[in-house]
Amino acid sequence: MYAAQEARWTKKNAITALASIALALLAALATVARGEEPVLAPAPAFDAPKAKGELQTAVLAGGCFWGVEGVYEHVRGVHSVESGYSGGTRQDAHYDIVSDGGTGHAESVRIVFDPAELSYGEILRIFFSVVHDPTTLNRQGPDHGTQYRSAIFVADDAQRDVATRYIAQLTAAKVFANPIVTRVDPFKAFYPAEPYHQDFLERNPTYPYIVFNDLPKVRNLKKLFPEIYREQTTRS
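Predicted structure:
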């Protein structure tokens, strides 16, 4: 009798323990699924005015390129977004090699935009607000390594001025609790990533990594920047 009662209590305790573990895991997943908390950065005090002209290009690195690309594909005024590698050489611009972290490349995106609809400063405001955490060195979310660094690859002095002044503005305003580690490097070259990386978020919305790490960023874009968010993507 006592043995049977003890067995029932043991089973009950085991079920209770499993239920507690399950609840803890669900809570953890809910936290992860929110992604990085967005920070509504102020608009750049110094920016290039919007004006009709030829399409322009911005190259940014902010962790895994799937999420960065996925965010900018929903930004009004963006004509195309492409995942790729920047910071290293052509012969090393391959995912398997870049993943080792020793090539100098960062997983990057090339954003082609209309300067009459979207300014370079607005692109950077989105970058600092919802795309990534600019205070984590060589790390974003679950990804670690120099290939996941925060970097702005500037094409000319005009882009450099907007980027450096904006970082200084955010630093002076103490927008982030920790120092900004985003690098501002001269743009040298951009090498497109393998085809299976392109439009990855749009094509794989139920992929666990995307669900937990990247879809929250798109939702944050819609929430914080409704005036420039568009439901359709550049791929649509």
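Summary: Confidence is low (pLDDT under 50) at residues 1-9, 14-34.
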